[in-house]
Write a structure and sequence with these properties.
The complex is a heterodimer.
Chain A (H helix, E strand, L loop, with lengths): L7 E10 L2 E11 L4 E5 L6 H8 L7 E6 L2 E3 L4 H6 L2 E4 L11 H6 L5 E2 L2 E2 L1 H14 L15 H14 L4 E5 L7 H16 L3 E5 L3 H7 L2 E6 L2 E7 L5 H9 L17 H4 L6 E8 L3 E8 L4 E5 L6 H9 L6 E6 L2 E3 L4 H6 L2 E4 L3 H5 L6 H13 L7 H14 L16 H14 L4 E5 L7 H16 L3 E5 L3 H7 L2 E6 L2 E7 L6 H18 L1
Parallel strand pairs in A: 3-10, 3-11, 6-9, 9-10, 15-20, 15-21, 18-19, 19-20
Antiparallel strand pairs in A: 1-2, 1-4, 4-5, 7-8, 11-12, 13-14, 13-16, 16-17, 21-22
Helix pairs in contact in A: 13-14, 13-15
Chain B lengths: L1 H12 L3 H17 L7 E3 L2 E3 L1 H24 L7 H18 L6 H29 L3 H20 L4 E2 L3 H8 L1 E2 L2 E2 H18 L3 H10 L1 H6 L4 H27 L1 E2 L8 H11 L11 H20 L4 H19 L1 H15 L15
Helix pairs in contact in B: 2-13, 3-8, 3-11, 3-12, 3-13, 4-5, 4-6, 4-11, 5-6, 5-11, 7-11, 9-11, 12-13, 13-14
The chains are: A alpha/beta, B mainly alpha.
C-alpha cells in the first residue's frame, strides 16, 4: 500500500475558532486502497480536520493536495465533485424525502431541466443493491432506522466517482450486525481502490478494519502508525497522553446489596405505563442511590422508556408514584419539579442550544425551573459553571464560548452539568458515553458511581453491556419495545446472560412461525 | 503589527460594526450632497435639523421593531403589527373625537388606555394562535394583518377621523428638553424592553426557545408562555407606535396608518443582526437598523429622487446593506482580493471560486 503515491495529503494545517485552537500544524496523508483511522479524544480535532478537508471551514494555514494538485474546496459540494465524499457524524439527510431523492438530491439526472424520476429510482436501486440493501426507494427515508439512513448516506457518497470516502463515526448508532455489514462494504470499496478515512471511538473496530492510524491530541499531530505495529494499549496511551490506569479506576462497586437499597419507599414507581407505538406498558421502581441499567438493542424501546419517565412523551395510562404518593409526570417541566433530569441521546436536536454560550446552556434547566422572573444572580451562575467546568474537565474552559464551538464529548459534558446543577434525585442518562472518547467515558462512569453513592438515583441507558454491568445495581432488559426482564446485578449476571435474555424472545418468535 | 491587526479585527468583528458603518456612510453621503445636512439649530427653544427629524420620524419604527425583535427571536414573525398600529390609532382618535373637551388630559389618557387594552387582546390572540393552537406564525399573524385593516375601518366607519387634541398631538410632535417627545418615548421603550429581557431571564429563555425549541422543552422551559408573551409585547409596542403615527397627523385613517411597517420592522431586525431563524437577538442592532431605514427614506426625499424611482433606490441600498453584512459575501470578496495579490496562493484554483 505504501508503494503508491498518496491520493490526498494535508500539510501544516492550522485552524482556530474564537477562544479555541482546534488544529495546530497537522499533517495527514491518505493512500488509495487503504482504510485509515483518524483517532483522538473528544476535542482532539478530528471533526475539524475533516471539515477543513471538505471545505466546510477555511484553513488558517496549511496546504491540501489531491493527486499532487493543491486544492481548496469552498464547500462539501465542491469537494464531492472533486471525488472527496463525506458521510458526516450526524446524518445530514432529509427524512421527509424519499430514499431515492436523498441519494440524488442536488444532482438529479435531468433532461431539459426536468428530473428523470424513473432514472433516479432505477439508479438508486442499483446503488443500494451494490451495498446489499433492499429498500423501497420511494418510501420516505424517515420510515427507516437510523442505521439504514446511515447506509443511504454512504450510498449517496459513493455514487459520485469518489476516490476518497470520509466516514465520520459511522458506527456510533449501529448494532453489531449492521457494523459487520458496513465493514463488508468498506472492504469492498477499499479493494476497488477507494481511500477511506474512518473516524470512530471503538478501538476494536479500528483493529478490525484499519490499515493505518493517525492519532491527534489537543489539535496537534501525535503520529501516523501502521495498525499492525501499534498495540491497542499504546494507541490509547497516545490518544490520552498519559499512562493508562484510568480504566482500572472504576471499582465494581455496583455489587452492593440490592436488597438493602430497595428497602423503603421507592423514589419513583411506575406501573403499567406505556404508549401505543412506542413501548408496551411496563412497571419499574427506582430507589434513591440505585443505578438501574437499561439494556437492549437499538430500537428496542430504551429511549422511549426514558422519555415516558421524563414526561417528554405522554403516557397512555398507568400510575406514577413519586415518594409513594401518586403523581403525574406529563411534561418535562413537571418531571423536573419532581427532581427528575434527562440527558437525551440526541444531543444536537434535543440537548444543546447551539447559539447560547456554555454558561447559558448549563444554567438553562435550573433557570427554567425558577421561572424567567427570578434570574439566577450572575455571581451564582459563575460559581456553578466554574465548579462543573472544573469537575467535568470541560475544554475549552471559557464558559462564554458558544457551545457549538465545543467538540461532541464536551457538549455532552455541558449537558450533564446542566442537569447536575439542578441537583436531581433521579437522573436519566440516555447513551451518555456514545460517540465520546475513552477518557471522557471513564470520567462519566466514575461520576455515575459517585452520584449514586451520594444518594442520587440513576437510570443508565447504554448499548454497551459491559458499561451497564459495571455501573448498575439492577438491569432492565428491553426487547421489541417490551421490558422483558429485570435482573439483579449479582455474581450470576454477565453480558452473556443479558444477551440471552435479549435474544430469547426472538427465538421464541421464530419457533412460533 | 499583530496587535493592531487584532484590535482592527476586534472592532470590525463586533456585531454592531457593519450596521453602524452603513449608517455613518449614509449620513456622510447626505452631508456631501447637502453640506448643511448635519447642522442643528435652536428655534423657539426647540432643536431643528435633519438628524433630529430622522430620530423623531424613526421613533414609531423603532417601537414596532423592538417588539418584532422578540417575536423573531422566538423563531416566529408578526405580520399584524401594521394593522395593530391602525386599530389602536383608530380607537384612540375615535374616542377623543366623541368627547366634548378633546384637550382634556384625562380624556386622552383614557383613550390611550382603551386602545392599549385592545392591542393587548389582539397580541394575546396572536399568542394563542401560535403558542397554544400551534399555527405557523406567518399564517397566524397574517389573519390579523388582513382582518385588522377591516377592523380599523369598522371602528372609524370608513371615515378618516380628524381630532383636535393638543395632549394627543404631543405624542408625535411635542417637545421635551428641546428634543421631540417621540424620541424620549422610543428611548424609554427601548430601555424598558432591554430591562424586561436582560434583567430577568426572559431574554435568554426566548433565545433558547428560538434556538432549539425541543431542547428547551426538554430542559423544562414552558415555551408556550414565553412565546405568548412575545406576541403580546409586540402588539403593545405596535399600539404605542400607532399613537405616534396618528398623532403626527392628528387623524386616523384605517387604511394608511402603519401600512407596510411590518416589512420595515422585519428589515430593521435583520439588519440589526437578529437571525430570522430565531435565537440570539440584539436590541441595539435593531435600533440602528431602524435608524438606517429612516435615514434612507429621508435621503430619498432630500436628494429629490423622483417618487417613481424612490422605491427602487431604496431596494438597491437595502440589498447593498444586506450584502455588506453577510460574512459569506465579505469572505468571498476578501479572498478574491487576496488571490489577486498573490496569484500563487494556496486558494487560487479559479474554478473553485465561482459563486455557487
Amino acid at each position: 500500500m505504501t508503494d503508491s503515491r498518496p491520493v490526498l495529503t494535508m500539510t501544516g494545517i492550522s485552524k482556530s475558532f474564537p477562544g479555541v485552537r482546534a488544529l495546530h500544524d497537522v499533517n495527514f496523508r491518505l493512500f488509495p486502497g487503504e482504510v485509515h483511522a483518524l483517532m483522538g479524544e473528544n476535542g482532539a480535532g478530528k471533526s475539524t480536520l475533516i471539515k477543513v478537508l471538505t471545505g466546510v471551514y477555511d484553513t488558517d494555514e496549511g496546504t491540501i493536495t489531491l493527486d499532487g494538485e493543491p486544492v481548496s474546496f469552498s464547500g462539501p459540494m465542491r469537494a464531492t465533485a472533486a471525488g472527496v465524499s463525506t458521510v458526516f457524524q450526524e446524518v445530514n439527510l432529509c427524512t421527509n424525502l424519499s430514499v431515492a431523492e436523498n441519494i440524488f438530491i442536488g444532482r438529479e439526472p435531468r433532461v431539459f431541466g426536468a428530473v428523470r424520476w424513473g432514472e433516479v429510482r432505477r439508479r438508486a436501486r442499483a446503488l443500494l443493491a451494490r451495498l446489499d440493501l433492499d429498500l423501497d426507494v420511494s418510501a420516505p427515508l424517515g420510515s427507516y432506522s437510523l442505521a439504514i439512513q446511515q447506509m443511504v448516506a454512504i450510498a449517496r457518497a459513493i455514487d459520485i466517482q469518489a476516490r476518497v470516502l470520509i466516514l465520520d463515526e459511522p458506527t456510533s448508532s449501529l448494532d453489531a450486525g449492521e457494523v459487520a455489514q458496513l465493514f463488508r462494504i468498506m472492504r469492498q470499496l477499499r479493494d476497488e481502490g477507494i481511500a477511506i478515512l474512518f473516524v470512530t471511538h471503538f478501538l476494536d473496530q479500528v483493529y478490525e478494519i484499519a490499515d493505518r492510524i493517525t492519532v491527534l491530541r489537543n489539535g496537534g499531530l501525535v503520529g501516523e502508525y501502521l495498525t499492525t505495529e501499534l498495540p491497542q494499549l499504546s494507541l490509547v496511551e497516545k490518544m490520552i497522553g498519559k499512562e493508562l490506569d484510568v480504566l482500572e479506576g472504576i471499582e465494581e462497586h455496583s455489587r452492593r446489596d440490592l436488597a438493602a437499597l430497595e428497602e423503603g419507599t421507592p423514589l419513583v414507581a411506575v406501573s403499567n405505563v406505556g404508549r401505543a407505538g412506542a413501548v408496551e406498558p411496563f412497571s419499574l421502581t427506582i430507589h434513591a442511590g440505585e443505578v438501574v441499567g437499561l439494556a437492549g438493542l437499538l430500537g428496542s424501546g430504551r429511549t422511549e422508556v426514558a422519555r415516558l419517565l421524563f414526561g417528554a412523551d405522554r403516557t397512555d395510562g398507568g400510575q406514577v408514584a413519586v415518594d409513594g404518593t401518586a403523581s403525574s409526570l406529563r411534561t418535562p417541566a413537571q418531571a423536573i419539579d419532581h427532581g427528575v433530569g434527562f440527558c437525551s441521546e440526541n444531543r444536537r436536536a434535543e440537548g444543546i442550544v447551539a447559539d447560547l454560550s456554555v454558561r447559558e446552556n448549563m444554567i438553562l434547566a435550573m433557570q427554567a425551573a425558577r421561572g424567567w422572573l427570578r434570574p439566577i444572580p450572575r455571581r451564582r451562575q459563575d460559581e456553578l459553571v466554574d465548579k462543573y467546568v472544573k469537575a467535568l474537565n470541560i475544554r475549552p474552559a471559557d464558559p462564554e464560548v458558544p457551545v457549538r464551538n465545543l467538540s461532541g464529548g464536551n457538549q455532552q459534558k455541558v449537558l450533564l452539568a446542566r442537569w447536575l446543577i439542578t441537583e436531581p434525585r433521579l437522573l436519566i442518562l440516555d447513551e451518555p458515553t456514545r460517540g465520546i472518547d475513552i477518557g471522557a467515558k471513564t470520567e462519566i462512569q466514575k461520576l455515575v458511581t459517585q452520584l449514586s453513592d451520594g444518594g442520587m438515583a440513576v437510570l443508565f441507558i447504554s448499548a454497551e453491556l459491559e458499561e451497564v454491568l459495571r455501573l448498575s445495581h439492577k438491569v432492565a432488559v428491553m426487547r421489541d419495545r417490551q421490558m422483558v426482564a429485570q435482573l439483579a446485578n449479582d455474581d450470576s449476571l454477565d453480558a452473556d446472560r443479558i444477551m440471552q435474555t435479549i435474544a430469547s424472545g426472538s427465538h421464541r418468535e421464530e419457533a412460533d412461525r | 503589527m499583530n496587535a493592531t491587526m487584532g484590535r482592527y479585527r476586534a472592532v470590525t468583528g463586533h456585531r454592531l460594526f457593519w450596521p453602524a458603518a452603513v449608517l455613518v456612510v449614509m449620513l456622510a453621503a447626505n452631508t456631501i450632497y447637502r453640506p448643511g445636512f448635519l447642522s442643528i439649530e435652536l428655534k423657539d427653544g426647540h432643536l431643528y435639523g435633519s438628524p433630529i427629524d430622522i430620530l423623531r420620524l424613526s421613533a414609531p419604527l423603532i417601537l414596532v421593531a423592538l417588539g418584532m425583535t422578540l417575536v423573531i427571536s422566538t423563531g416566529g414573525i408578526d405580520l399584524s403589527v401594521g394593522s395593530v398600529c391602525a386599530i389602536s390609532g383608530a380607537i384612540a382618535c375615535m374616542y377623543i373625537s366623541k368627547q366634548s373637551d378633546q384637550n382634556s388630559l384625562a380624556v386622552v389618557l383614557t383613550a390611550l388606555a382603551m386602545a392599549l387594552g385592545v392591542a393587548l387582546v389582539l397580541g394575546a390572540w396572536n399568542g394563542v394562535l401560535v403558542a397554544v393552537i400551534g399555527i405557523q406564525p406567518i399564517i397566524a399573524t397574517l389573519i390579523l394583518m388582513v382582518a385588522g385593516r377591516g377592523l380599523a375601518q369598522l371602528i372609524t366607519q370608513g371615515q378618516i377621523i380628524t381630532i383636535n387634541s393638543e395632549p394627543f398631538r404631543a405624542i408625535g410632535l411635542g417637545h421635551l428638553l428641546t428634543l421631540p417627545l417621540a424620541i424620549f418615548i422610543a428611548l424609554a421603550a427601548a430601555l424598558l424592553v432591554a430591562a424586561f429581557t436582560r434583567r430577568t431571564a426572559l431574554g435568554m429563555i426566548v433565545e433558547s426557545v428560538g434556538g432549539n425549541a425541543e431542547a428547551s422543552r426538554l430542559a423544562g422551559i414552558r415555551s408556550g408562555r414565553v412565546i405568548f408573551l412575545a406576541y403580546v409585547l409586540s402588539a403593545a409596542c405596535a399600539a404605542i407606535a400607532g399613537f405616534m403615527m396618528t398623532a403626527n397627523v392628528s387623524s386616523a385613517d384605517g387604511n394608511a396608518v402603519g401600512l407596510w411597517v411590518e416589512l420595515d420592522a422585519i428589515l430593521a431586525v435583520v439588519i440589526g443582526g437578529t437571525s430570522l431563524a430565531g435565537g440570539r437577538f440584539f436590541l441595539s442592532g435593531t435600533i440602528i437598523g431602524a435608524l438606517i431605514i429612516q435615514t434612507l427614506t429621508t435621503t430619498v426625499y432630500a436628494m429629490d429622487i423622483s417618487p417613481q424611482t424612490s422605491l427602487l433606490f431604496k431596494a438597491v441600498v437595502v440589498i447593498a446593506v444586506c450584502l455588506i453584512q453577510a460574512p459569506a459575501f465579505r469572505a468571498r470578496f476578501v479572498r478574491r482580493r487576496r488571490n489577486v495579490a498573490t496569484p500563487n496562493a494556496i486558494a487560487d484554483k479559479p474554478k473553485e471560486q465561482v459563486p455557487a
